[in-house]
């Protein structure tokens, strides 16, 4: 994949009406898509500063450091954004399973085609 | 990645207040994440029935068959859903670039770490 480094500011991303932006999390080594969660401007900045993923929990209405309880932190390798700057893609090195079910990825089920 | 086939109905997915669910699109061969777009129940069903991605355009407020104009359709290989059933992951074989800029993936820019 081509890669360009831009001097975009965290504030220049496009957030939704709730101030959130979706972040897809992909394993940097296996390229498996692990999960999708939401960030606000503060957790985007923390993720960049601390090189570990932080999200905003819509159900608990609070910041959430991924792996804080489980130990399965995700070390940030790269943070990409899309052409509209309204979706993020975090490439990470996960310390353990991303899913609360214990599955490596939250996307472990498929529709029957 | 483990894989389970479930008899989930399209209506059983969790849609947001606007009746939409985010869908991550990944190249089934290269595993590059290509784009993220929104589906409603009707476009999830069409995607499954026609084995090509359909989305709901929030800006144009209409159904959108990916590649309809550009020819860059995405043949559906697998449609996964996450543990909460509120996010989809479509594995596809793309006929051409996913991004309107001509880039293969919409995620061609990164923050400078």
TrEMBL record, chains A, B:
Alphabetically, the GO molecular function entries are: magnesium ion binding; phosphoribosyl-AMP cyclohydrolase activity; phosphoribosyl-ATP diphosphatase activity; zinc ion binding
Biological pathway: Amino-acid biosynthesis; L-histidine biosynthesis; L-histidine from 5-phospho-alpha-D-ribose 1-diphosphate: step 3/9; Amino-acid biosynthesis; L-histidine biosynthesis; L-histidine from 5-phospho-alpha-D-ribose 1-diphosphate: step 2/9
Residues folding into a coiled coil are none
Q: Tell me which InterPro entries the record gives.
A: PRA-CH, PRib_AMP_CycHydrolase_dom, PRib_AMP_CycHydrolase_sf
Principal localization?
cytoplasm
What's any GO biological process attached to this entry? Answer: L-histidine biosynthetic process
Which Pfam families did the record assign? PRA-CH
Which GO CC terms are listed, alphabetically?
Answer: cytoplasm
Q: Which residues form the Phosphoribosyl-AMP cyclohydrolase domain?
A: 35-108
Residues recorded as binding Mg(2+), renumbered to this chain, are 82, 84, 86
SUPFAM superfamilies registered for this protein in UniProt: HisI-like
The record lists Zn(2+) as bound by: 83, 99, 106
UniProt KW ATP-binding keyword: no
Compartments, as annotated in UniProt: Cytoplasm
Cofactor requirement: Mg(2+); Zn(2+)
In which domain of life is the source organism classified?
Bacteria
The record's comment on protein family reads:
In the C-terminal section; belongs to the PRA-PH family.
Subunit structure and binding partners: Homodimer.
Question: What is this protein's function per UniProt?
Answer: Catalyzes the hydrolysis of the adenine ring of phosphoribosyl-AMP.
What protein is this chain from?
Phosphoribosyl-AMP cyclohydrolase
Q: Tell me the name of the encoding gene.
A: hisI
């Amino acid at each position: 994949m081509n890669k360009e480094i831009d001097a975009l500011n965290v504030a220049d991303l496009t957030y939704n009406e709730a101030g959130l932006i979706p972040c897809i999390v992909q394993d940097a080594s296996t390229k498996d898509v692990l999960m999708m969660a939401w960030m606000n401007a503060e957790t985007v900045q923390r993720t960049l500063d601390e090189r570990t993923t932080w999200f905003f929990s819509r159900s608990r209405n609070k910041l959430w450091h991924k792996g804080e309880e489980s130990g399965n932190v995700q070390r940030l390798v790269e943070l990409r954004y899309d052409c509209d700057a309204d979706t993020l893609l975090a490439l990470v090195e996960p310390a353990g399973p991303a899913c609360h079910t214990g599955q490596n990825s939250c996307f472990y089920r498929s529709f029957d085609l």
